[in-house]
C-alpha cells in the first residue's frame, strides 16, 4: 500500500468516527462540532490529488460498512421517506429549497435525486464519469439506497454564451423537471462561476461547480456525497 492509499484510509477512518458521533449524538453543540470536523476532513481529502477510473472501487467497503446513516431522523419521527417526498402544486410557482422533490421508488426503497449536469461538450465522457463515480460513492457512504439520476444534461461550447447568458432557460428547466441538484463542470472555478452557482442555489437543494481536474479526484465525490446527505438530513 503506497503512502496516498494509506493516508486516504486513515482519513476515511476519521470520517467514519465523526459520522457516527453526529448520528448518535442528540446534542446540537456536539453535532455542530462534528460538522466542523467534516469540513476539515473534506479539505484534507481535496488536497489528495488521486485520479479515479470509472471501474475503480472508490472506497473500501470494509472500511465504511459500519458507518451510521446520515439520514437518521430518530425513533419518534415519521417514516423518513414520507418526510423527504414533497409535492409541488401546479398553482404554486415557488422555488425555495424545501419545495424540491426527491422522487422515491417504493418498490426497492430507492431515493432518486433528479439532477441537471452542465458540462463542456468536448468532454464526451464527463456525464458517465460523473454519475458512475458519485453513485458509487453514495453507495459506500450511506446505507440508504440513494441514486443521483440524470434528468436534464446539457453540453456547452462557451461558458459565457451557453451558460451564463442562458440563466433564465436553465431556471425554467429546473422548474419544469423539478430538479433537486445542479452540477456545473468548468475548466476552472472563477468568481464568475461562483456567483452563477450562488444564484442557481436558490432554486435547488444543492448546486455545485466542479473543475475538470476535480472531476478525476476521489475527494470530489466524497465531498459532494457528504454535502448532499447533510442537505437531505436537514429537510
If you had to describe this structure to a student in words, what would you say it looks like?
By secondary structure, the protein is α/β, with parallel strands linked by helices. The chain is 46% helix and 16% strand. The protein has helices spanning 3-24, 28-46, 61-64, 80-84, 126-141, 159-163, 167-177, 191-200, 218-233; strands spanning 103-105, 110-120, 145-156, 181-186, 206-211. Strands 1, 2, 3, 4 and 5 form a five-stranded mixed beta sheet that branches. α8 links the parallel β4 and β5. α1 packs antiparallel against α2 (28-46) and α5 (126-141) crosses α9 (218-233). The longest helix is centred in the N-terminal third of the chain and has 22 residues, at 3-24. It is globular. Residues 49-78, 88-99 and 103-107 have low confidence and may be disordered.
Oligomer: single chain
Topology pattern, helix = H, strand = E: HHHHEEHEHHEHEH
The pLDDT mean sits at 75
Name the overall outline.
globular
Which regions contain 5 or more consecutive residues with pLDDT less than 50?
49-78, 88-99, 103-107
In DSSP terms, counting alpha (H) and pi (I) runs of 4 or more, how many helices? Answer: 9
Supply Rg. 18 Å
The fraction of residues assigned to DSSP E strands is 15-25%
CA(first)-CA(last) distance: 40 Å
List keywords for this structure.
235 residues; alpha/beta; five-stranded mixed beta sheet; 9 helices; 16% strand
Topology, element by element:
Elements: H1 3-24, H2 28-46, H3 61-64, H4 80-84, E1 103-105, E2 110-120, H5 126-141, E3 145-156, H6 159-163, H7 167-177, E4 181-186, H8 191-200, E5 206-211, H9 218-233
Parallel strand pairs: 2-3, 2-4, 4-5
Antiparallel strand pairs: 1-2
Helix pairs in contact: 1-2, 5-9
Amino acid at each position: 500500500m503506497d503512502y496516498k492509499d494509506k493516508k486516504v484510509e486513515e482519513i476515511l477512518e476519521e470520517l467514519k468516527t465523526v459520522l457516527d458521533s453526529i448520528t448518535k449524538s442528540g446534542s446540537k453543540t456536539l453535532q455542530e462540532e462534528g460538522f466542523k470536523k467534516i469540513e476539515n476532513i473534506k479539505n484534507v481529502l481535496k488536497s489528495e490529488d488521486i485520479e479515479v477510473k470509472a471501474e475503480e472501487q472508490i472506497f473500501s467497503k470494509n472500511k465504511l460498512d459500519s458507518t451510521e446513516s446520515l439520514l437518521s431522523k430518530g425513533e419518534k419521527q415519521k417514516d423518513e421517506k414520507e418526510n423527504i417526498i414533497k409535492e409541488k402544486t401546479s398553482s404554486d410557482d415557488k422555488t425555495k429549497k424545501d419545495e424540491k422533490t426527491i422522487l422515491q421508488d417504493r418498490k426497492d426503497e430507492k431515493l432518486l435525486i433528479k439532477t441537471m449536469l452542465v458540462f463542456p461538450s468536448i468532454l464526451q465522457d464527463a456525464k458517465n464519469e460523473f454519475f458512475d463515480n458519485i453513485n458509487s460513492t453514495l453507495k459506500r457512504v450511506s446505507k440508504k439506497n440513494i441514486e443521483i439520476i440524470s434528468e436534464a444534461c446539457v453540453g456547452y461550447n462557451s461558458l459565457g454564451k451557453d451558460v451564463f447568458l442562458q440563466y433564465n432557460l436553465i431556471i425554467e428547466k429546473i422548474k419544469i423537471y423539478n430538479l433537486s441538484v445542479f452540477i456545473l463542470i468548468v475548466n476552472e472555478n472563477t468568481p464568475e462561476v461562483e456567483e452563477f452557482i450562488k444564484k442557481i442555489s436558490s432554486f435547488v437543494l444543492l448546486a455545485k461547480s466542479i473543475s475538470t481536474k476535480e472531476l478525476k479526484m476521489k475527494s470530489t465525490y466524497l465531498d459532494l456525497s457528504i454535502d448532499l446527505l447533510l442537505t437531505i438530513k436537514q429537510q
